[in-house]
Amino acid sequence: MAQSSSTPPPRITEAEWAVMRVLWELEEASLGEVVRRLDHPDWKPRTVQTLVRRLVEKGALAVEAQGRDFRYRPAVSQNECQMDEGRSFLQRVFDGQLTPFIAALVDKRQISKDELQQLRDLLDAAENKIHDKP
After folding, report:
1. pTM, 2 dp
2. For the chain, how long is the longest CA-to-CA vector?
3. Are residues 20 and 62 in contact, defined by beta-carbon separation less than 8 angstroms?
4. Closest CA to 7 of 69, 71, 80, 100
């Protein structure tokens, strides 16, 4: 079960994100399953074990003993973590401003036509929500 939205999700390092992505996809897994799914050429099982332990300590993963095995599952949602990370990035790099970030992507041609259309659709939907409010 994901933690409540009133508590911010824990800060997750880049390496921990890789582990969390596997567990968000699988929903629950043993350490061995996570190791096999990651298939990271530079990581030994001990490295993954350390990352999983840190994520448990941070409260990002829940752990349950099943016999001699341990099962891990996300204790925070992927969406919560993505939103928190996005807010943090925007605050650090763009002083909390979304428009300069999007402008930088567009200016440097780091955004595809499909992504631009998706953004237009999102903005149209957001504008409709604003106009539909009583």
Report:
1. 0.78
2. 57
3. no
4. 80
